[in-house]
Every structure is written in C-alpha cells, then in structure tokens.
Amino acid sequence: MKKTCFLLALAVFVIFSVSLTGCGKGRDLFSFSRQCGVGLTGGRVVSETDTHGGFHGDGHKLLIVQYPDSSIAGKLKASDQWHALPLSAPLQTFVYQSCDAVLSIPAIGQGCYYFRDRHAESRDPSDDTDLLNRHSFNFTFAIYDTETDRLYLCEFDT
Fold first, then answer.
1. In this predicted model, what pLDDT tens digit does every residue of 68-102 receive, in sequence order?
2. CA terminus-to-terminus distance, the chain
3. Residue of 2, 40, 51, 121 with fewest CB within 10 Å of its CB?
4. What is the pTM of this model?
5. Buried b or exposed e, range 78-98, using 16+ CB within 10 angstroms
6. Burial of 113 per CB tally in 10 Å (0-12, 13-18, 19+)
7. Where are the domains of the chain?
C-alpha cells in the first residue's frame, strides 16, 4: 500500500512538473497579449531567451514567434498601441546598434512595432524619446515582420 501511494504521488508530481515547464511560453504570449492589447497566442514560439534572475531581476527576455499566415498583421495595424515601421530614432539605435548582439533582431523593412516604457522616470509609457538618456532600461518592445510573419517580443530590464 505504501509503495502504491508513493508511486502515485511521484507520478502526480512528475506530471504536474512537466505541465508547468511546458506551458511557460504560452503564459508569456498571454502576458504580452494583455499588455499590448492584441491577442498574440495564435503563433508558435520558435525561440526563447531569458536572462532575468540576476541581481534585482535584471536581464532580457526575447521570444520569437512564427505565425502560420499574415492574419495577425491586420489586428496589429488596427490597434492604436502598435505603430507602422520605421522605428523611431531611439528604438532604432537601441535595437540595432546598442544591443544588436544581445537581441539579435534582424533588420525589418515592413511591419509594425509596440513599445511600452516601464521605467520609474517615464512620464508617458508609450513615448521612447528619453530611452537613451537614462542609466537603466525597463521596457517592453515588440516588432512584427510582415514579410516573414514573425514576431519578436522583448522585455529589457537593467
């Protein structure tokens, strides 16, 4: 009886552990969806990098999501929180010069982007004007490539 109870408890623990680790990417997409006002869960996460967990939770998270078609593009363009490319000058500099090696986002010619400044000194969360004038960065950024139906989602915290 004790052996059966132990094996049953072990099986439940293993199944629960596997289910928690397997659904993390789905939770990330759901969280980004709530934040940016558009449902992003129709895609498949093809790459995930997360360096958070250091001192005070510093690090960055980058999810690359592949969509089966361009149906998400219309939703993004219709949202007032997403903007047509090109990127603003501060975002262009940050993504493709300052942190190119960290983020590894390819140059995207056609698409749209989302930006939310989570920095304590931010006056307007949708304004990236002061992004490069600070000693630390706390923001969420996403860029969608309409040519490849690929979305790059980034959280940056320093």
1. 999 999 999 999 999 999 999 999 988 888 765 66
2. 53
3. 2
4. 0.76
5. eeeebbeeebeebbeebbeee
6. buried
7. 23-157
44-50/59-66 β-pairing: antiparallel
The DSSP-derived string for the chain is: -HHHHHHHHHHHHHHHHHHHHHTHHHHHHHHHHHHHTS--TTSEEEEEEE---SGGG-EEEEEEEE-SSSHHHHHHHH-TTEEESSPPHHHHHIIIIISHHHH-PPP-SSEEEEEEE--TT-SSTT--TTGGGSSS-EEEEEEEETTTTEEEEEEEE-
Residue pair 123/137 in contact (Cβ under 8 Å)? The answer is: no
* Average model confidence (pLDDT) across the chain: 78
Rg (CA), the chain: 19
Structure tokens at 53: 């967990």
User: Which residue in 100, 117, 110 sits closest to 156, CA to CA?
Assistant: 117
Cα–Cα separations (whole angstroms), residue 92 to 7, 77, 129, 148: 55, 20, 12, 20
